[in-house]
Each structure stands twice: as C-alpha cells, then as structure tokens.
C-alpha cells in the first residue's frame, strides 16, 4: 500500500522530521529573535512534519504537476495531521506544544488558517525541490547501510520518546499537586465568601421592613455586598500569596542552606547538582510547551515554567507564556 518500500518510507519519515525541526527553529528564530527548541521530542525531530509530508507524497505524488490539487491537498492533509496530533497530545498529557489561539480562524488553538496556507506552500515547494533530492540520496545508499542507519535512528527515537514521556509524567505530577493545592485555597476563599454573602443577605432581609423605601435599602445592600466582595478578593490574594510561598517551598525542596562545615557544604552541593540533573528533562520540557489561559491547570504550569526559568538563570521571556 505504501508508495515506497517500508525501509525507504521510514527513512523519508526520519529525514522529513529532521527537516521540519530545522524549519521550526528557523521560523521561531526569525519571529522570536532567539533559538527555541521546538517539537514534542527532546531530539532534533518533529514527527508531525514527517507524517504530514509523507502523507502528501503518498496521495499527491502523481499530481505534482497539478499545482491547485497539490496545494490544497497538502494543506488539508498536513492540517489534519497537525489537528490529530495536537488533540491526542493534549488528551493524553494535558499539555500543548503549539497554540494558535492568537491567530484568526483557529480551532481550539490546534490549527489555524494561516498555518494551513503555510503547509500548502511549504509542501508544494518541498515536492518539487526537497523530495527529489531526498529520494536520490536514499537510492545511492547501499541497502545494508540504510538498514543500519534506520536501526540507529529508531533506537535514538525510542530513547527520546522514553525520556520525553518520563519528563512529562514528572512535570504533570507537579502540576496536579499545585492545582489541588490551589483548589484547596480557592475552596476556602469561596466558602468564606458565601458565608459573608449569606450573612449580609439575612441581615438585609430580616431587618428591612417591606414598607421601607426599596431604593435606599437596595443601595445599602449593594454597598455592603461590594465591600464584602472586596474583602473576599483581598483575602483571596492573601491566600494566593500563601499558596505561592508554599509552592516555592515545594519546588525548591532540597535547596538547603550552606552547612557549618566544608564537607557538609560539598555534600549538599553535590546533592543539588544531582537533583538539578534529574530535573533537566523537565526544565527542557517547560521551555517548549505552550499554555493557553483556557487550558486546565494553566496557572500551575506558568508557575513551574517561571520557577525553572529562575533555576537556570534565564529570562522569563525565554519561556512561552501565552495570553498572559
């Protein structure tokens, strides 16, 4: 069913995934003015590009000379792959690796009209320029060399997937912990606010004769309600401050003060270095994901991103905070 033998098809997938990663780095280098390591995986690969472009080759290789069919077909296939990948990743990990919410004509931030047009243009050019060169390169490789390279790349991809998923699981555990803790503070604040509101409502209802002037009574009620809502918001801010303080203690676990002796100080330094190395995959992950304000646990993810940025001495701008 494949347009090429399986080994050739797999080789194309790897090549186009790497090319896609290069395109992403170049695009964000121009638009953001800095290097951003894009993609789901830690390694220099964007599988969405590999799958999308191979799908275009599969269905539209016979129509290379028909530009309208190639353009619109490429746009539809690649957009469908991007949508499917985005929805699946978000459903499994509750994280985004791209977000088009700020663009017009987007769907849930996963796809948008602008990048659909980009897909059509890029794939149309790629079919005439990139694909012939890649096919020629693969064909000159001896069969056993090709198989050996595929084995190496497949092994590296498997290791990369394991490392990435492990980092995501660790990151999500922290996010869920922070979200539950945040929810606890919010519940306390909401309950207190409801009690305040109920007390004010009871006082107004029982102490205001029905024959009194309704306008003045209602104005007084609104003033009391507004005052207590202000107190509630201030209390909520206080809880948020306490929450952030607790979060800071949680995420900074293991960072102890310098001990009295040089040996203990050295041991603590070594321990901190080991923990930092363990957190390194999560730090890399935090720099790559996108967060939309409507996403679940958005605030907790932003907190962790900011914390990791502080850990490595980076500017917060190096982390992508959407809709802040």
How would you name the oligomeric state of the polypeptide chains in this document? single chain
Helix content range: over 70%
Give the helices and strands as they follow along the chain: HHHEEHHHHHH
Query: Widest sheet: strand order?
Result: 1-2
Shape: extended
Protein model, in words:
The structure is a single chain. With 324 residues, the chain is mainly α. It has a two-stranded antiparallel ribbon with strand order 1-2. The chain has 9 helices and 2 strands. Residues 316-324 have low confidence and may be disordered. Helix 1 crosses helix 6 (143-207), helix 2 packs antiparallel against helix 3 and helix 6 packs across helix 9. Among the domains are: 6-140, no CATH class; 265-324, no CATH class. Helix content is 73%, strand content 1%.
Features:
324 residues; mainly alpha; two-stranded antiparallel ribbon; disordered C terminus
Protein topology:
Elements: H1 6-32, H2 47-60, H3 67-93, E1 106-107, E2 111-112, H4 113-128, H5 130-140, H6 143-207, H7 214-251, H8 262-286, H9 298-311
Antiparallel strand pairs: 1-2
Q: How would you briefly describe this protein structure?
A:
The chain contains 9 helices and 2 strands.
């Amino acid at each position: 069913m494949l347009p090429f033998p399986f080994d050739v098809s797999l080789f194309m997938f790897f090549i186009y995934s790497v090319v896609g990663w290069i395109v992403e780095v170049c695009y964000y280098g121009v638009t953001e003015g800095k290097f951003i390591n894009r993609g789901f995986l830690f390694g220099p690969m964007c599988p969405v590009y590999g799958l999308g472009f191979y799908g275009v080759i599969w269905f539209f290789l016979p129509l290379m000379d028909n530009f309208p069919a190639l353009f619109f077909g490429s746009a539809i296939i690649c957009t469908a792959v991007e949508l499917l990948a985005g929805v699946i990743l978000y459903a499994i990990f509750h994280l985004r690796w791209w977000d088009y919410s700020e663009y017009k004509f987007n769907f849930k931030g996963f796809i948008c009209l602008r990048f659909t047009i980009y897909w059509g243009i890029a794939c149309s050019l790629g079919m005439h320029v990139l694909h012939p060169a890649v096919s020629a390169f693969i064909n000159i490789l001896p069969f056993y060399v090709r198989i050996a390279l595929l084995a190496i790349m497949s092994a590296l991809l498997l290791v990369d997937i394991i490392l990435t998923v492990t980092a995501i699981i660790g990151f999500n555990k922290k996010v869920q912990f922070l979200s539950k803790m945040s929810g606890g503070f919010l519940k306390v604040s909401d309950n207190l606010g409801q009690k305040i509101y109920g007390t004010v409502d009871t006082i107004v209802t029982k102490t205001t004769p029905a024959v009194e002037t309704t306008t003045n009574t209602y104005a007084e009620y609104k003033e009391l309600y507004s005052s207590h809502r202000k107190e509630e918001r201030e209390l909520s801010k206080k809880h948020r401050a306490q929450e952030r303080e607790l979060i800071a203690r949680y995420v900074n676990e293991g960072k102890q003060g310098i001990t009295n002796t040089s040996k203990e100080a050295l041991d603590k330094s070594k321990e901190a270095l080991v923990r930092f190395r363990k957190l390194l995959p999560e730090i890399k992950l935090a720099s790559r994901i996108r967060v939309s304000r409507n996403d679940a646990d958005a605030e907790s993810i932003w907190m962790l991103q900011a914390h990791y940025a502080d850990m490595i001495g980076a500017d917060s701008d190096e982390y992508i905070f959407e809709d802040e």
